[in-house]
Amino acid sequence: MAVNSVEDILNLLISSAFRRCRMLDDLCRLSVSLKPTRPSVLISVSDTGTGNILEEFSELEYKNNRILSGKWDGLLSVMTTSSSDKEIHHLKFDLKEVVASRRLVRLPSVTKSGAKFSGTEVSLSLYEEIDGLVTMLHLYLQKILLLKAFVSSDKLFTFPMFHKIAIELIVESGGGTKSFFLQNACSTPATNAVNSYNLTLGLEEYVSKHGNKLTEACHSCFSTGKNLKVGTGVACSKENHQNSGQVMEVVIIISNMSMLDQSSCSRLYGRRTEVLYFNDFSPCSMPQSSLEALNSIDWKNYGLVLKSVGDLDGITILDTLPCSHSNRTDRYLTRKALKLALSDLKKRNTGTLLSERAVKICNYAPDLAKTISGLIMSSLDLNFKRECFSLLGLPSPECEKDIVENCIKDKIVSVIATNDSGRRGTKEAPALFEQGPKKAFQGVGEYFDTS
Amino acid sequence: MARRHLCYNRFELLKQIRELTRSIVEDICGGRSPILRIDQFSSYCADVSGNCCCSYDLPIRKEILVLQRESQVRRLDLLLRVLLIVQQLLQENKHCSKRDIYYMYPSAFKEQSVVDRAINDICILLHCSRHNLNVVSVGNGLVMGWLRFSEAGRKFDCIGSPNKTYHIPVQVEDVEDIFSLANYILIVEKESVFQRLANDQFCRQNRAIVVTGRGYPDIPTRRFLNLLVGTLHLPVYCLVDCDPYGIDILVTYRFGSMQMAYDSKYLRLPEIRWLGAFPSDSENYQLPQQCLLNLTTEDKKKAEAVLCRCYMEREVPHWRSELQLLLDRGVKFEIEALSAQSITFLSEKYLPSKIERGVHL
Question: Its domain of life (chain A) (predicted)?
């Protein structure tokens, strides 16, 4: 894996720590600390996940570019131990070392004195402004937090968190230590269903913060929490000798709130749609194959127009740096999961994402409702009126005209929406390949704003 | 199965409207699209041989309106709007014209034909005629001659002055006490000819009832004629221009229009006989050459369209031959051309002699 920038190395270290936490069948803690040691900043990423991480570092490839070499000496100090180890290994990686055998230097181990625990701490020094690093880490963590929304703490900042992992971001400065503590006491197993559920919760929270607030949800826009429409879809491919099994999960959220003209309520990307992509629980750029899948969806079936991927109205994709590979399975899974998520959202939210044709038909619903209501209300036959009201589930023929009209209109829209959904199959995506699925998680979270 | 056509009173129709409304409500409450199945009727097909199975009173197919196509939903919307108006008319026992309905929602209806179609759809759904819905059109037809009748208490004593012109009543269903001393009914295509006959005191000399629909006949005129023929059992003659449009008008009296095909049973006049003017009349009555006009492109198109109708060959082959002759000759003339010899030629010679000699098709 190539490391090109400070951002790359930090992202890599944090997502590795996540992975180790996920692999642990227990509660886990992940800390990221920053300590200014002029002129550099000492950064430490530690976790209480499974230890023994030599393989991960042996795959790292330091790209010796001028910018990176001015900011990092290529050294990583690693302390790691697994629960079965009797001591804590102390290692030093010099990624700038060209001779492979000299890259890893083992330093004296530290005894665990019979204690049973596991964990890893990776430290490095970066020649960067600490404020810039904190901002960078916030942005990265914010995407990770999408994977799970959770507990509010009374600490300085509140982050939603991965299901059994507590995270803290510690920033030491001259005035003391700021600890952005993130906590989660839940220990649900990470099945696919839970991933999807977590992603949904995370995305909801992300949206409720307009995607740009770290602390709390925007209460003026999301006070009731009912302004969001959600759809999820999962597509799987099975493992065989050619392909590793994959799972693609898509969560789509539509915010119905109107965009207020206040800076605090404005999203970074305005009315455009953000697509957040995760590969194996790590936020990353969307691969070309998935971008192709987005382009190949017939958006008109959902009453949407895709003007461009990457910019303009309609859809904006964040982090759309092209990936080096284009994979047919990726494209298929993204497309299938996305379609399932769109269909799911339609099904769960009557009248949402209707096709262009259904929208046109729906335009007649108010007039139809008014006329049908008129036929009922103006009839002189009381028994007939009572019968119709009973069918409509309305209490009595004395109901106000508007109530009857709205009731009929809603039912008409519902019928139109059902017909619209029924036109396209909403069946589960068939597995592409034989054999059982592997737990490779890919998730896409999309956030539409339809104000 | 033959279509039932019952003469509903307004209470029975109101009951049917409620049933229709209830079924729509049941459907939408059950999460289903309402389905309206509307029979489609046709007066004719394009089988020139006439060996088809066209039947005027049987539906040829069904149109189904559901909430799946914009055009169908729009049609359903308009149909229900008109149905609401009809329900109110029937409940209050009031009448209005198609035009009145149009002006209730002009922006929604956009054009009169939309209202007409909605009314027809409702008639088909409820198995009734337009007047049953209390929707009436302003009568366009005129009548004179040896006839007396009353309409809703109002007396029409044409016999007292047989050359006086009366408007055909709008509420034909209210016409009663029909009495006549006439020997035949004469239908003339145009008001100008009707007035010529009135002016010539035609009905003083001839025991006739003369009717004009002033061009293509409207529903009250055809229903009134239907009523007269059914009550008086008199022979009916028709005098039209010798051109494709005149013949089309004749055919409309005989078979009814395509638009009102669903109700043609009550509108057509199978007994009608074509008295003239025939293409051969131009020689027989030595019409001046300048009275003969060349058929226009429109005329030719109209002639060809009428020739293609299946009933022409099957039921009135002589009419068809005359129309073919007209087309082949490529010239036409108006009834008024017969007055070239003498202003009273039509009323004093042409009509009496034809009727007396039985020169009709």
Answer: Eukaryota
ipTM confidence score:
0.84
Measure B12 CA to nearest chain A CA, in Å: 13
pLDDT tens readout for residues A418-451: 888 765 543 333 333 333 333 344 555 555 543 3
Q: Are residues A67 and A202 located together in one domain of the fold?
A: no
Residue A168 is assigned to a structural domain of this protein: no
Residue B314, CA distances (Å) to A447, B238, B310, B311 in order: 69, 20, 6, 5
Distance between start and end Cα atoms, chain B: 34
Domain shared by A124 and A198, yes or no: no
Chain B residues with CB under 8 Å of A375 CB are 17, 21, 80, 83-84, 87
User: In Å, how far is A387's CA from the nearest CA of chain B?
Assistant: 8
Asked if the C-beta of A393 comes within 8 angstroms of chain B's C-beta atoms, the answer is yes
Q: What is the pLDDT of residues A69-105, one digit of tens each?
A: 788 888 999 999 998 889 999 999 888 887 878 888 8
- Give yes or no: residues A25 and A96 share one domain: yes
- For A339, A343, A445, B116, the CA distances from A332, given in Å and listed in that order, are 11, 16, 17, 52
Please tell me the distance from the alpha carbon of residue A182 to that of residue A153, in angstroms, as a whole number: 7
Which stretches of chain A score pLDDT less than 70? 1, 64, 145-164, 174-198, 210-227, 239-244, 256-272, 308, 310-329, 422-451
8 Å CB contact of B69 and A361: yes
B290 in contact with chain A, both atoms CB, cutoff 8 A: no
Counts for chain A of helices (H) and strands (E), in that order: 12, 15
Residue range(s) defining the domain that contains residue A92: 2-130
Q: For residue range B301-357, list pLDDT tens digits in order.
A: 999 999 999 999 999 999 999 999 999 999 999 999 998 889 999 999 999 999 999
- Please check whether residue A57 is in contact with residue A65, taking contact to mean a CB–CB distance below 8 angstroms: no
Contact A388 B22 (CB under 8 A): yes
Residue to mutate among B12, B28, B71, B125, with most A CBs inside 10 A, is B28
Q: Quick check: is A433 in a domain? A: yes
List the beta bridge partners of residue A111. A87
Q: How many domains does chain A have?
A: 2
Residue A224 lies in a domain: yes
* Residue A93 sits in the same domain as residue A227: no
Residues near A126 by Cβ (< 8 Å), separated by ≥ 6?
A6, A40, A41, A43, A71, A72, A133
Both tokens assigned to B277: 């003017």
- Reported as half-sphere exposure (CB side, CA atoms, 13 A), residue B199 has a value of 10
Catalytic residue among B44, B56, B102, B103: B103
Asked if B21 lies within 8 A of A408 by C-beta distance, the reply is no
Cβ distance B77 to A392 less than 8 Å, yes or no, reads no
Residues in chain A with CB shorter than 8 Å from the CB of B25 are: 372, 376, 388, 391-392, 408
Contacts 24+ apart (CB under 8 A), A224-227: A227/A255, A227/A256, A227/A257
Q: What is the mean pLDDT of residues B210-232?
A: 95
Quick one: closest CA in B to A378, which residue?
A: B88
Q: Cα separation of B187 and B234, whole Å? A: 12
Structure confidence at residue A369 (pLDDT): 97
| Dihedral sign computed on CA atoms, order A391, A393, A398, A402 | negative
Angle among Cα A120, A123, A128 to the nearest 5 degrees reads 145
Q: Are residues A211 and A303 both part of a single domain?
A: yes
Catalytic, B237? Answer no
Cα–Cα distance for residue pair B230/B207, rounded to 1 Å: 18
Q: Identify which of B24, B70, B73 has the shortest CB distance to residue A372.
A: B24
> In terms of domains, do A12 and A124 share one?
yes
> What pLDDT is recorded for position A337?
83
Residues A431 and A296 in one domain: yes
Contact B166, B158 (CB under 8 A): yes
Contacts of residue B31 in chain A, CB cutoff 8 Å? 411, 414-415, 418
Domain boundary among A92, A109, A130: A130
